[in-house]
Design a protein that fits this description.
Helix content: 25-40%
Largest sheet: 9 strands, mixed
CATH superfamily of the largest domain: Dihydrodipicolinate Reductase, domain 2
CATH class of the largest domain: Alpha Beta
Strand content: 25-35%
């Protein structure tokens, strides 16, 4: 039925690819492409004989638009699933526009070097215009909206869990549970234990930059920015237990502030253990989280990239991670003129994920929504021309797909609220 080009072959991409192969009646042909073709070949060999999906592989440097264009023209897919690095979102979007192909990704664009002069000028201009200084934002990709509309193409941004599923939960709550949503608290809890003194559950460059950035939340029509990790709350998560969680900036807040009418406050919290925070602060204090190149023994290195090479590969954490994740959204608002609270969430088991696709739950909870987002586009359920985030589409078929393919939702109508 469909031919799909999947760019990326890391932990999340591996999950998404395996889930695509479970829906071979839609994903009849896929091409796995990355900078390291041998990784693609190994995954293809692993899947051979276990799916009717026809799998091919290719080498591509997704930093180079011309290489992506050449691959798209050669393979002729109906959709490009970008599950590479967020640094590469724009080059792949450019290639899709050049070739007339629909696009999707799992995380919003982020400049690789936030100290690069041209990026800094754009960043400073945006700070003045919107009073906001976090560097994870959608403005880069939203600038492509008219181009995709004019081309009659769809670009789906951020079809992971958060962003992605959390935004679908918000759209679902607005459609089915509320006349007016007043507050949204997005809670991301990872209760897993991998046994290492320090490791990140997804790409260390992205993870550590995200956590060490200033926090922010939306309140009464404007952004409130706070020092990194300066607001802490405790919460008792179902099937995980009591955890410390910290307020972070997260990209879906930006889109939800525009798409949920009249919302008064949106916050994002993520759980962290004390050991993780101690390691991170130490690394930050000695400069290891810096993106500014330094000269070491005649060679230029980027500290955070060097650190990434030293840390355990997130893709290897699956067999040693135990515990569960609990991610969802708590709402307050009104229905039929009466106050209401509502909590929609998912609980995912690290060990069960490994049994199914040899992955820990962090990759699983991003890879499954990537497949489900692609499924929405390929089956025509989501087909508006332009650039959109998940909550701008009908949430019902997406959540139905999540329920069916591994991430069933749960609900509570009397949740404990976050103060």
């Amino acid at each position: 039925m469909s031919r799909v080009l999947i760019i990326g072959c890391g932990g999340v991409a591996s999950v998404a690819i395996q889930k695509c192969c479970q829906v071979s009646e839609v994903f009849t042909e896929i091409c796995i492409a990355s900078r390291t073709k041998s990784k693609c070949d190994a995954l293809a060999a692993k899947l051979e004989g276990n799916t009717s999906t026809k799998i091919t592989t290719a080498q591509v440097d997704a930093d180079k638009t011309e290489e992506v264009i050449a691959l798209i023209k050669n393979y002729k897919p109906e959709l490009v699933m970008n599950i590479a690095l967020p640094y590469q979102d724009l080059t792949i979007m450019d290639a899709c526009l050049a070739c007339g192909i629909n696009y999707m990704d799992t995380a919003n664009y982020e400049p690789e070097d936030i100290n690069e002069p041209n990026w800094r000028a754009i960043y400073d201009k945006r700070c003045k215009e919107e009073g906001f200084s976090a560097y994870f934002d959608y403005s880069w990709q939203w600038a492509y909206r008219k181009k995709f509309e004019d081309a009659g193409l769809t670009a789906l941004l951020g079809s992971g869990f958060d962003p992605g599923v959390t935004q679908a939960y918000c759209a679902y709550a607005l459609k089915h549970e509320f006349d007016q949503i007043d507050t949204i608290d997005i809670l991301d809890c990872n209760g897993g234990d991998h046994g290492y003194p320090f490791a990140t559950n997804f790409n260390p460059e992205i993870n550590l930059r995200e956590v060490s950035a200033p926090g922010s939340y939306w309140e009464n029509g404007h952004w409130v920015e706070i020092p990194a990790m300066s607001i802490k709350r405790e919460y008792n998560f179902e099937e995980v237990g009591q955890k410390d969680m910290y307020l972070l900036h997260h990209e879906e807040i930006e889109s939800l502030a525009k798409t949920i009418p009249g919302v008064k406050r949106i916050r994002f919290f993520m759980t962290f253990g004390q050991s993780y925070l101690d390691h991170m602060r130490c690394l930050e204090n000695v400069g290891m989280l810096s993106t500014t190149p330094i000269n070491y023994e005649g060679k230029e290195i980027v500290p955070i990239q060097f650190l990434k090479a030293l840390l355990p590969d997130p893709a290897t954490l699956g067999p040693r991670t135990k515990g569960k994740t609990n991610i969802g959204c708590i709402f307050t608002g009104t229905k039929d003129g009466k106050p209401k609270t509502y909590y929609i969430y998912n609980i995912c088991d690290h060990e069960e994920c490994y049994k199914e696709v040899e992955s820990q739950a962090i990759s699983y909870t991003t890879g499954v929504p990537a497949m489900c987002g692609a499924l929405m586009l390929l089956t025509g359920k989501w087909n508006k021309a332009g650039v959109y985030t998940v909550e701008e589409f009908d949430p019902d078929p997406y959540i139905e797909a999540l329920d069916k393919y591994g991430l069933p939702h749960r609900e509570s109508y009397s949740p404990v609220l976050v103060d």
